[in-house]
Predict the structure.
Amino acid sequence: MSTMTMRIDDIDAEIIRKYAQFEGKTISDFIRDAVFEKIEDQEDLATLRAAIAADDGKRYSHEQVLTELGL
């Protein structure tokens, strides 16, 4: 298992400690979760941008979708 070091000021460190405790997590778990959430957010944003770029502008009403699905 690897160890990573992060330098932050004392005020920020205390905020992180308290928030991790509030969430019932260790500091390591809290920071790991936060990092991976950030990565996921960036991946979601990239997916959204690709979808917007590929959008042909055609839209379907709720009724059209239900009819198409035979519902």
